[in-house]
Amino acid sequence: MAKRKSKTQKKVEKEVKKQAKKHPVAVLLVLVAVLTIAAVGGFLLYKYGFLDSFINPNQSSSQEKSSSQEQESSSADSQENGLFDDLSFHFISAGKSGTLYNGDCIYIKAGEADILIDSGKVQSNYVAISEEINKYCTDDKLEYVITTHTDADHLGGFIGTNKKGILYSYNVETIIDFARTNKTNPTSGSIYGQYLAARDYAVSKGATHYTALECYNNQNGAKRSYDLGKGITMEVLYQDFYEKNSGDENNYSVCLLFKQGEKKMLFTGDLEEAGISSLVSKNNIGTVDLFKAGHHGSSNANTQKLLSVIQPKTICVCCVAGSNEYTATNANTMPYQVSIDNWAKYTKDVYVTNFAESTGVVKNIGPGGELNGTITVHYSSKGEKTITGWNNSLTLRETSWMKENRTMPEEWL
Fold this sequence. Notes:
It contains 13 helices and 17 strands. Helices cover about 30% and strands about 20% of the residues.
């Protein structure tokens, strides 16, 4: 049923017709002007792309994808053309012989920058650490020192013997360490107490100290991401125990992601399962080229939840394989059989610094030696990777220690 027009509508129409008859040329000019404006406006909108999403709704997402691909291609081209600085990671051996202890110590050379992550367990480790550093560091300056957490097997070389450790002997620019600890009242004689004294000394000589949380939050001059050289960055990742308490000191570990172009290298300290869950959920890590095995190769630091995300191409383990420092059960000495099985799903390139001859008695640590010894993973300016060991360059699956002490995963056969 047609809708009836109101009296007002009829009156307006009548007046329009009346004016049109009186001034036909004027009405025609108005219509021409309106059409001209509409045509010009439409042409300009089309010319400058404002109508693209209406004409081709898939074009916008296609352009964004193309832009992303161009950026990735540009980064890859830069790496091929050698526009990045060299980058090398040195997983320093606990020693060549005698009584060896598990511990982390990684020296990194990024362009002209020198970085040290942790410093092993024994204070006399300083000698071996400084020897490795001094092969590449010519100015006695460490741009960054990172202390992942307060356990003794990460602190020894910082202290050294008779206050001749890393923090006393090098010019340190920036110290980044843990945001929390359960060791609230350390004695001056404890390893942690001595670390605090060494850190204070370095600060008194000009070093700047930040916590990992300050870095992540870009607070007080700290940065979440640091430029280390051409195309190389060091990023402090977030995990919940920067701000929450944990009954396990390992969960306070500082976590770092290094990048050279598109290649990524992940360091998680001794972070355990609860910390790993938050690390995975709170960061977009993606796949990595290099992974420093978590907590010396223990099972709850090398979980499938983490490995399925990062899918590492190379894994380096700072440990004394088979050491009964913590347990007399061979299968539960570092690196755990479970960890090896998990790694094998993603790579055959697993390297281990040291081994020990287990005596079957907890803490009665027998003599040992080097598997690979100090492991060096070097990325050239073109991203080409080479891996060498001071003692040898065998992967773990190729060593007699693996064949005698662990069950070979099916993927490694």
